[in-house]
Design a protein that fits this description.
Layout (H helix, E strand, L loop, with lengths): L8 H22 L3 H25 L5 H13 L11 H6 L3 H9 L7
């Protein structure tokens, strides 16, 4: 029991599935719209930050046994959650070759 509530993994799993379904629906809705997809990624990052800095930090263990249990769970269940940002080099590999060359040489250069 935590905060007067009984942890029910089945209910949590159902809620997480609902959230995942909604995110997938949002991705489909934004398909092909880079700006909308970027906004979606920013929103997910913001939610991650809010949960991490708020409810998660407030729920951290206050004794060694509970801390050990948490660290053991983090290690066995896939590590620390992390939202990775695309590296600039990876981003540039998706640009068409001619656009990349224009960016490299400057599209407003006057030929001599």
């Amino acid at each position: 029991m935590k905060n007067g509530r009984i942890f029910e993994p089945e209910k949590l799993f159902g809620k997480l599935q609902d959230i995942a379904t909604e995110v997938h629906n949002a991705v489909l809705f934004c398909q092909g719209d880079t700006i909308a997809l970027l906004a979606l990624l920013r929103q997910l990052e913001q939610l991650h930050r809010e949960i991490r800095d708020g409810a998660f930090q407030e729920s951290l263990p206050n004794n060694r046994q509970a801390l050990y249990s948490l660290l053991k769970d983090i290690e066995s269940e896939g590590g620390w959650p992390y939202i990775e940002r695309m590296k600039l080099q990876e981003f540039l590999t998706n640009l068409p070759q001619e656009v990349a060359q224009q960016e490299e040489w400057g599209s407003d250069r006057i030929s001599e």
